[in-house]
Amino acid sequence: AGSGLLGLDHYVTLDDRGIWARQNQLLLIGTMLVGESVVAVWEGGDTRLGRTMWKSIDATAVGGIAAEGLKLAFTRARPSETTDPNQWFQGSGHASFPSGEVTIVSAIVTPLVLEYRHDHLTVYALELLPLYDAIARVKAHGHWQSDVLAGYALGSAAGYFMWRRTRTPVVLSVMPHSVYVGWKRSF
Questions:
Q1: What is the reported pTM?
Q2: SS3 content of the chain, % helix, strand, coil (to 5)
Q3: What are the Cα distances from residue 101, in Å, to 28, 34, 65, 182?
Q4: Which value, in Å, is the radius of gyration of the alpha carbons in the chain?
Q5: Each residue of 65-95: pLDDT tens digit?
Q6: Contact criterion met (CB below 8 Å) for 51 and 61
Q7: Contact between residue 141 and residue 80 where contact means Cβ atoms under 8 Å apart
């Protein structure tokens, strides 16, 4: 039987090789962060893709800040630190709940899925990225199952909120006009 949050959590065998290797998880999140930034600056805020990418950046910031705040509040021990998923409020250095990486990955893809779901059904395939990251984080003993589910929900909520918020993304509204226009048009 499971334990932890809502009985969802159980200790799994460590699998930090092949597709689940930590280096692949870091490559995914790094590529996604750089990719969203490059596309946003290249496109600017005048195009549909550009606005959507800036909304992804907003969602990344909001989701990341919220995840870090929750980590500080709950100080849950990671599976790499204990086999007991009920180790909450363990103090400084424990940061399992929620998964910040899954939060970020889902925050990046959610505005894209919401914006393009009616035009291109294949955009739903982007949801495989946070799913992969969630499974990899559990297998590598970085998080419990409820940590990654909470991260996915938090990132998706941040993505939805920032996608629905307004026409002009928050981060873009404080940037210089040349960024709003986009480097693509500048060249």
A1: 0.91
A2: 65, 0, 30
A3: 10, 14, 12, 28
A4: 18
A5: 999 999 999 999 999 999 999 999 999 999 9
A6: no
A7: yes
